[in-house]
Amino acid sequence: xxxxxGSSLTFREKLAYGLGDTASNFFFQAFNIFLAYYYxxxxxxxxSAAVGTLLGTVPILVAALNPVIGVLADRTTSRWxxxxxxxxxxxxxxxxxxxxxxxxxxxxxDGKLLFAYATYTLMLxxxxxxxxxxxxxxxxxxxxxxxxxxxxxxRFACAFLGALPSxxxxxxxxxxxxxxxxxxxxxxxxRWQPDARYxxxxxxxxxxxxxxxxxxxxxxxxxxxxxxxxxxxAHRHAPERFRSELVAAxxxxxxxxxxxxxxxGAWGPALYLLHTHIGLVFLNAVFLGNxxxxxxxxxxxxxxxxxxxxxxxxxxxxPPSRLGDFFHGGLGYQIxxxxxxxxxxxxxxxxxxxxxxxxxxxxxxxxxxxxxxCILRALRFHLVPRAAxxx
Length: 391
Prior knowledge:
This protein is an all-alpha fold and 391 residues long. The protein contains 16 helices and 2 strands. A two-stranded antiparallel ribbon has the order 1-2. Helix 8 runs antiparallel to helix 9 (239-264) and helix 10 (268-291) crosses helix 16 (371-381). The N and C termini lie far apart (72 Å).
């Protein structure tokens, strides 16, 4: 039993409980993000209204089962307790159904829709059979309200972390499918925005690498740098958007800082600053130099271009070197990475000569330029012409 004066649960126990929702969200959020696209564009269900009805009504109907599952779980008696058997034994059908949902059998159009209804419904039932007892488990782990509040904090922080990779994979997959294609490639979204133009290299650097370029989400990355963005760009060009970005940025930064503090304690703020102000600036710079000032296309245009050609003409490598390969994490071989996205980073260097020969044989450009030169090209792309700048 918990002590009346303090918490009885250790950091390890709280983190272990929270990581359960990390795994669950890593799996579940992938469904939420991919399913609409998968059903319409991969399975080939042409009736988008039917897909919307499926994704909108089935979760509501299955939600009515939660109280039933809660009652059944509360009446369960086993040597593992009331709730753990549901989590242990529910994980297997949950995983199997997640696979079956993407099996895409060769049925008729009506058969595909029925198969989608059946597998999606069963998957949500399996999720409810795990998640409802998992939520109730918090109440029997400790009778201390302090412990339960802390457990809830760990759970939702870890659930947030579990949802991040799915969203990143979705955006990254769209970028790989259609690099430099307007309306599809979110990683390059700011290149088509007429207001994303700046009066100097310095202001372009701040906006692109620190404040705007975060996986296609055009929000300021650092609250500490907002006054710089305000002075260099927002009040001059788009003050109304700056205010909404300020609110979203403050909320996002506080949420991230809270997650770091929960997971790493006193080290949280330092690690948060390191992650935000150093790691992402460098990573964004690596990505920025790989595609800018190269050809771009509208969505209808890119469908007429072969996949390999599209990847080659819209990507750029950095000159190979052992030191550069280490710091770029393999992303210096961007052309090879786009042609073979599942190839391990140590294989990209070996693939480069073959890809270069392939491009030469087919008359395709094999774009390569030094890292700093590529960054300058990207910044130059976003400069306002001197003649157009206010005097």
